[in-house]
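User: Teach me something about this protein's shape.
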Amino acid sequence: MAGKTKTYTNEQLLKKVRRLRSLMSIFAPSMTKKAKLRAGTELYIETDEGLVRVLAYNLEREQTLPLFVNMHGSGFVMGDAEMDDACMKTIAESIDVKILSIDYSLSPDYPFPKALNECYSVVKYAREHPEELGIDPELIAIGGQSAGGNLTAAMLLLDSERKQLGAKCAILDYPPLDVFTDASEKPHPKGSIPVFMSRMFDPCYLNDKEGRKNPLISPLYASVEQVKSFPPTLVITASRDSLCEEGERFRDMLMEAGVDVTHKRFEARHGFNLKPGPAADESWQLIMDFLRRHLLDC
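Assistant: First, the predicted structure itself:
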């Protein structure tokens, strides 16, 4: 059935996702349950979108430091800030930055643009309240894994019009950037995201296929002109990931627009750096070096 997109009603999507979350709570509890033990400090930030939960790192430090805002992955439909807790702990212990890791609202309960608006509003709040957070508002980085990388790119596209965030740099870690194209039409090397799963995740974010061409949903559909305002951007892709090609096409568009791009393709699967291993260590070192270069050595 290559090229034929499966359609679901909103009610069917909710039923499927709730079943999936139930299964994941058994087989991958770290993706569905907020950990009782965490390195980050739980905060609720009052934003234009209401209260948004975040995990904060190094916020207790008295020094004024740069800020890194992180968004987790899991297809917009699962996960929470705890997914990235160990990784954020490593960054917080290794470089002099404060971190807010956002626990945005999940689809399909809260479809586009809820998560995007929440994430944008958290960064906007941070920029407008630097004394409260003890940060330098001119030194803010944003980034995320998978869906979090999509949200990062979408926030930058949104900010190209609003000009409220002033991000110093950005990190797109194996992001889905084309939510419109059916998963069967994308590369699917062994071990990549199953087609049936992508076909469920994509409409959860917006259950209107034509609407998913919106660059705020599928940043790959942005124009070169729209991405010219992007700050220095790190793009990480994985060779055994169905999203590798679109990530590298977006890299090429950024470079065509004159954006300062750093890119590395890892011989790995989607989500590889959320599990221990040499490639994971190398990727997080790359991310920390990138943050140091643009937030601390500038």
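Now, about its shape. The chain has one domain: 10-32+56-296. The first strand starts at residue 41 and ends at 47. If you'd like, I can walk through any region in more detail.
User: That's plenty for now, thanks!
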